Amino acid sequence: MIRFVVRRLLTIIPILLVATMAVFAMQSLVPGTLAVELAGPAAGHAQVEALRHSLHLTQSLIERYWTWLTDALQGNLGTSFITHASVASTIASAWPVTASLVIGALLVSVILAPIVALLGANRPNGWFDRLTTVSASSAVAIPDFVLGILLLIIFGVTLNWFPLGGYVSPSTSVVEWLYHLVLPVLCLAVPLSAALARQLRYGLAEVLDQDYIRTAYAKGLRKVTVLTKHALPAAAPAAVTLLGIYVARLLGGAVIVEEVFGLPGLGQVTIQAILNKNFEVIQGVVLVFVAIALLANLAADVVTLWLRPRLLTSAILADA
Prior knowledge:
CATH superfamily of the largest domain: MetI-like
Oligomer: single chain
Radius of gyration: 24 Å
Structural class: mainly alpha
Number of domains: 2
CATH architecture of the largest domain: Orthogonal Bundle
Shape: globular
Distance between the termini: 14 Å
Order of helices and strands: HHHHHHHHHHHHH
Number of strands: 0
Largest sheet: none
Helix content: over 70%
CATH class of the largest domain: Mainly Alpha
């Protein structure tokens, strides 16, 4: 297992390099020059050139990328040319909001999806099974911003159960923090829960036809015991893999959801950085998002191998 994890970690490095190189290369495709925009329309040629030298813009793209990379390896993601704030501090201040959304959506989905899948598998092709199948397909297809607006209209405006936006730090009030996160977390959790429930339901349909499940019933085990202790663990690996892949979608969805609900997380930081051509912040956010998505995929693979140890040998041979 350790050998497998180390090999997967080594594959993350080139992916991170490619992602950050791509963002760095985009700077050369943006019209205009950063020095001219920062100096302002009234600045003369000498002022612009002096600013270019101070920002190291006279170096080639490769030289600037190498400088950024060596600093990043030391934990320094640079300083924003726009806000003059440390990129690392900007990300650190906004990250707790995004982490609250993503982790909350994951927890809700991991709890809700197995319950829905097991209830559907308890009575195959029953009314609940059919209803959840149709509902899951619809929930997966709804865009995050549409679902967010619907939740605001129904629970924020019409019923007035939850606030229309804003964020309260848990250090101020844990209750208010949870209260303000309910709708945005649901907005992210509904599509993920639907996808996981659908995947688990398909897996359970295959597992319940296996001989060892019939043997378990023949031994007199209760149906709930067979479903939870035998069928669900066997059907879980495919759903765990899907969960690891879905983390990247959650991070992307958080960008939209934070804008809809007015949350000061990495989503708003990213959008403002794009609008202001704040490439230093974009570079740092991309690095964080890609790293988290890759580590989530690795964690999903490890859990899958733990659920099915026989896959470990084949995975190591495939990587060799």
